Amino acid sequence: MITLDDFASFMEKQMNSFFKDNALFDDFIRKELVPLAHLKERHSSWSLEIDLPFVDKKNINITLSGDHITVKAKLTKTFCVSRGSVITEFDYFKKTIKLPDGINTKQISAKFENGILKITMPKPADGKKIPIE
After folding, report:
1. How many whole angstroms separate alpha carbon 89 and alpha carbon 80?
2. Is residue 52 within 8 Å of residue 117, measured between CB atoms?
3. Long-range Cβ contacts of 70-78 (<8 Å, 24+ apart)
4. 102 in the same domain as 44
5. Distance CA 43, CA 10 (A)
6. 39: buried, middle or exposed (CB in 10 Å: 19+, 13-18, 0-12)?
7. 113 burial type by CB count under 10 A (0-12 exposed, 13-18 middle, 19+ buried)
8. Which of 11, 76, 94, 124 is deepest in the core (most CB within 10 A)?
9. For the whole model, what pTM was predicted?
């Protein structure tokens, strides 16, 4: 005879297996939230703004890898989400974005102010400057 505890244990194993194999649920497995982000194209640069509330500047890590930029930030306090009888605690924000073509990766800069991380990615200068005589 299967008890309720046996069934609950079986279901938990099945759910854990499903969540581990499904990238959509990575945030619940790794306890990382995906922050809101907005990528804008400007005349001479791209601007990426990421909302990082409850984060200190010293706890933000920006990594450039190939054609992707990853931002990971530790929260100053744990954020909890309740789903039925399960409470999931989140400690980090994490966002990975594919960079647009034509970025000058050597001149990327970042500024953090009022909970918003702004990353500026200059486009390479096109053409040749023509001196005037």
Report:
1. 4
2. yes
3. 70/94, 70/95, 70/96, 70/97, 71/35, 71/95, 71/96, 71/117, 71/119, 72/32, 73/35, 73/117, 75/33
4. yes
5. 56
6. middle
7. exposed
8. 94
9. 0.70
Residue 100, domain CATH:
2.60.40.790
Q: Which tokens go with 63?
A: 């990594």
C-alpha–C-alpha distance, residues 15 and 7, integer Å: 12
pLDDT in tens, 48-106: 999 999 999 999 999 999 889 999 999 998 888 887 888 888 899 999 999 988 888 88
Residue 130 inside a domain? The answer is no
Same domain, 81 and 103: yes
User: How many folded domains does the chain comprise?
Assistant: 2
The whole-angstrom separation of Cα 60 and Cα 102 is: 25
Residue written as token pair 């920006």: 62
Residue reference for tokens 């486009």: 123
Q: Which domain holds residue 54?
A: 33-122
38 in a structural domain: yes
